[in-house]
């Protein structure tokens, strides 16, 4: 018999299906059985709105030179054309960056998080994150077993006083603090927006206590009311912010176009790390991405998706008002694609998930986002399900939650 366990590295042995894989597997199983599950789970795109016609037209118009370039290896930092377009795109959000030396195109922001893990972190270092924070970033960081310190996220985002207390505590213990990972704009999962004052204060703390900031911004472009404040990268004077963003929530997650910008030397290190993983990004996808940006179609798509997601948010909020128990609490998201719900202490959303799945609805239990033990939260997605599924899914979930109170 093959003893598979003995072949794994420590890291390999630690790879176990996370909650998202479990939900996807359950949905696949139910599909095979002819049943349907309403997924209020991952941050998928509204499928009917994907810009497939625009992308198809770009490829229909590509000439031989373009196709030859697309089918060849690309450079490790991404195509010149895309880096230049991304630099112009970021300029509109007050981020100045040199496309030749300060940007690397990545396979989604997820790869950017992985690259920053490889370049900066190792066992024994301390990493600070929001508590709660994006679950797949936590999984990426955990690959190198850093000590993870969670700092409270309140309705205005990561709390700078709590951050300073944690930083002092870490340094007083003689530990090495290198990174603070944060999602300042419509944070995943809480959808809170870090105020401009807090952005500035956290940058001051970075300077005072000598740490770097990974600013992860997939959602800031989708604002239902006020525009997002200048990203921390646009306020940074000392090269301490590495800013990552992505096409996944605004154009297409399937294209796997993400990027990082920051200090030239850090970008160069990340580039070296990337060559060891994938040599370069998919050039076909980069071609489409640069053309979409050049033609102004990304801007149009952001506008279109903002309107669609605002409507879907309203439908989900209305359905929750009707179906959820009055003990449930949530913040009305001003952007992004999620609603973060707090339930009474006695509702364990981790345990409740399998029951929800048998009743044909799924969500992400909040415990996956926390560094501390908390079981009474859930994250709901409104970008992907149809409006009918939102209404039906929330009704099913409301009944289930009420049965637990
Ligand atoms: C906060 C955050 N960062 C990064 C990602 C990864 O996105 P991608 O790799 O598709 O760009 C996501 C995806 O949901 C996210 O929510």
Overall description:
- The protein has 405 residues and is of the alpha/beta class.
- It has 15 helices and 14 strands.
- The chain has helices spanning 10-14, 19-32, 52-61, 64-71, 80-91, 108-120, 135-142, 160-172, 196-209, 232-235, 264-277, 283-294, 297-323, 349-358, 387-404; strands at residues 38-39, 103-107, 126-131, 147-154, 157-158, 177-182, 212-216, 241-246, 257-261, 329-330, 338-342, 361-362, 364-365, 377-381.
- The strands form three sheets. An eight-stranded mixed beta sheet has the order 2-9-8-7-6-3-4-5, sandwiched between helices.
- Strand 10 and strand 11 (338-342) form a beta hairpin.
- The chain is globular, with a radius of gyration of 21 Å.
- The chain starts with 9 loop residues before the first helix and ends with a helix.
- Bound molecules: pyridoxal-5'-phosphate.
